[in-house]
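Two folds, back to back.
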Amino acid sequence: MEKYDKSIDMDSVYREYEKLVYRFLYSHTHDAEWSQELMQETFLRAVNSISRYNGTCKLSVWLCQIAKHILYQELRKKKQIETVELVDYLTDDSAPNGETSILKQESKIELYREIHLLPEREREVVLYRITGELSFREIGEILGKSENWSRTVFYRAKQKIREELKKYE
């Protein structure tokens, strides 16, 4: 494998991917200021380690992996691993393929509760897809799985949420 071209203009990389990395982080933190700080740290580390990028995944996925690592480091430091509040995002019609419209009619509180009761991997996939607006392929790459795996996990998580929400009707 070839190493990534060191002559890449990191300013253009920043301009191209800053919104994606920010949304990815915000989907975990639900805190604009903290997400901005984490995003800045992500790009700083990316600049310092660009020579280790080998091109086996998309640059956007590599940046999100760095962002996730930084976020988890910070959460461990704070000793407060919190889940993301999805209430505002789950009614957003701009999500990929309108997937949130399926859940739109349900009570926000009940929906919030059910998403956060999902096992960690399912919750992560739902967060990445809905609030991070990542493709199934990108989700698979970030989590070290296949595109089909992430698609299946998302589908099953959606089914679980629907079944649980039926109890509230």
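---
second:
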Amino acid sequence: MGIANGIRKQAKKIATGERRTSTWAQTLQEAAEELPPPAPVRRLEKDGLDISMAWAIIGIFAILGLAAVYMMSLILIPITLAVVVGMILGIAAENLSKMGVPRLANAFLLSSGVALVIALLANSLAGPLATLANEAPAFVERTITRIMPYLERIEWLHITPATFESGPMSIGALLENTGNVLHVVTTNLTPALVQGLIFFAALLLFLASRVNLRKTIIMTFRTRSQRLAAIRVINGVEQVLGFYFATASLIYVGLGLIMTVIAYAGGLSAPVLWGFFAFLSSFIPYLGITLMTLSVAIAGIITHDGFVVGLMPAAAFFTVHLVMENIIFPAVMGRRLEINPFIVFLAILFWTWMWGAVGAMLALPLSLIVMTVIEELLIEERPQPQLPK
């Protein structure tokens, strides 16, 4: 079959004048005319069983991939977080490079800035957290005293003051469980330190090799259109992440300051800690505001004698957050970064199940990355940049 195809190609060249005619060429042309026509290519038809087997194989590899992501969370969490933070800082890194700052110094300055911010936050929160840990026994007793009248009204719970005097819900058992929680936190401190070191090392190396990594990814593709698509995707992801988190951070810092004032005016202990939690929880859509509002409501009920007065800090925080999320945030962002709320909710649940609290923080950035990739690759109506020839 290969020889016959070769004869046909040579005969075609002779017929079109691409090759000089000779006796051997004439003989070759005659031989090509005598050859039987090539057999038509038949496409193998697949039945339902073949399609099911193909999808089953894909499903098996998907499950194995998810299992690998879950088992390697100790390494993948800090690396993924470093890549996301590095892409957020991509615009700042590019501006520093234009100012003449070397890449290594550029990466060192930005990673040191991130470490400094984290250190300042940890230092400012160390005092309130230590106070909260020391007051844990009194806080538990005060909590039980305050919520007992409300629990007694719910008859199907069968909770009375004797419930907290003996058994698993006694004050001693609760304090013991509090100690177990602290033991768990202490036990997980070493992996957290290891992940922190991996994060800063990965962030430094990612920022230092950012340009070379971009070139490597772009040059991996062969055709011009594929390289253009890779450039659009990389630039789009960096712009979306940088714009979103720069704007969101400014808005949520304002929300944290307002929450600090609300906590101080509402008589809640550690108002700075409440402000920090309000800032941090705002980056987790839906779940963050829900948990924060419930926590403020419980703290207010415990702190104040009146039920309505106790709920006022939670109501004030929820109102402010509602105004920021539905009026200020859309006015600043516009429709540029709209994502289906249901998809975001599923992404938060999935990554929280995979990687815990850090996964919940990464759910929105990963959703933005996927959204940007889909928009850049599938939307053809927008004008596309052209490389210089």
